[in-house]
Write a structure and sequence with these properties.
The chain is α/β, with parallel strands linked by helices. The protein is built from 11 helices and 12 strands. It has a 4-stranded parallel β-sheet, with helices on both faces. A 4-stranded parallel β-sheet has the order 3-2-4-5, sandwiched between helices. Helix 5 runs parallel beside helix 6 (about 130-135) and helix 9 (about 195-210) runs parallel beside helix 10. The longest helix is centred in the N-terminal third of the chain and has 16 residues, at about 15-30. The model has no long low-confidence stretch (mean pLDDT about 95). It binds iron/sulfur cluster (SF4). Iron/sulfur cluster binds near residues 14, 104, 168, 198 and 199. Iron/sulfur cluster binds near residues 14 and 169.
Length: about 290
């Protein structure tokens, strides 16, 4: 099988920084160390961190998760947490360590500033994902989380000061559409597109490469927003089949009937050795005559 290795792919700076912080904390700490959710959304990376002695506390509600930790250090993940979670950790006598990606921190600061200036903030993000939960917590009651066009239609904002911004790991194209929909309803809305560079570059590269292959494999975990969006943009914009593969065993040979050329990319939190295994497997695959 001919395999096109799509670049850029794999680890972004936020993920690398989060690993570096977690490793340092584990090495320098004698007591228990916990991560409040998956440090980055990849099952293999999470298994690896647990094997190094960092316990996973995986509650959708971060405050509920905190209450399960009795003592020691708690690492806030690359997706960020709300100020309420930070404060609660201190109240519980835990030692907080912040591994939030600098791009996510920038969005927190932006939303906080806008709310202080009196803006109502429309925030485009995925419901149930930790990043929106953290950002919305910067200004409760002033930030409106929207995911779909219907959510935008249901808004009833009255003020002159309206801003629209977004989660860092969304589909570039879907987000543009949603921002357009907000602007159509509220022409006065200020736009702050916060999709991070890593997400944007990986999506653009995947869509461009997909034009020249028969299908695309995205190596990443189902919890990874940016990996799921890679699958989505290839299907939607390049009109090519795309599949998410968390581990080599997920590869289904029935996908390759009539396929001669496959593109491979990976999410921003996918370990490169895993992607390499998938690439080597596909390269060794016999193309049916
Ligand atoms: Fe940061 Fe973007 Fe990487 Fe998320 S995908 S950790 S926002 S650089």
């Amino acid at each position: 099988m001919e395999v096109i290795k799509i670049t850029p792919r794999g680890y972004c700076h936020g993920v690398v920084d989060a690993f570096r912080i977690a490793k340092r904390v584990r090495e320098e700490t004698n007591g228990p160390v916990h991560m409040l959710g998956m440090l980055v959304h990849n099952t293999h990376a999470t298994d690896d961190l647990q094997a190094q002695g960092i316990a996973l506390v995986d509650q959708p509600d971060r405050l509920a998760g905190l209450s399960q930790i009795k003592e020691g250090t708690v690492i806030f993940t690359a997706h960020g947490v709300s100020p309420q979670v930070k404060q609660r950790a201190v109240e519980l006598g835990l030692k907080p360590v912040d591994a939030t990606c600098s791009d996510v921190v920038r969005t927190h600061e932006l939303v906080k500033d806008l709310a202080l200036q009196g803006y109502e903030v429309v925030y485009i993000g995925r419901k149930g994902h930790p990043e929106p939960e953290g950002v919305v917590g910067e200004a409760p009651g002033k930030v409106y989380l929207v995911q779909d066009p219907e959510d935008i239609d249901a808004l009833d904002l009255k003020g002159d000061r309206i801003a629209v911004t977004c989660q860092t790991t969304l589909s570039v194209w879907d987000t543009e559409d949603l921002i357009g929909r907000v602007k159509a309803r509220y022409p006065q809305a200020e736009v702050h597109n916060e999709i991070c560079r890593a997400t944007q570059e990986r999506q653009e590269a995947a869509v461009e490469a997909a034009q020249h292959v028969d299908l695309v494999i995205v190596v990443g975990s189902p919890r990874s927003s940016n990996s799921l969006r890679l699958v989505e943009v290839v299907k939607k914009l390049a009109n090519k089949p795309a599949y998410l593969v968390d581990r080599l065993e997920d590869v289904d040979l029935s996908w390759f009937s009539g396929v001669k050329k496959v593109g491979v990319t990976s999410g921003a939190s996918t370990p490169s050795q895993l992607t390499r295994r998938v690439i080597e497997y596909l390269e060794a695959l016999e193309v049916p005559a």
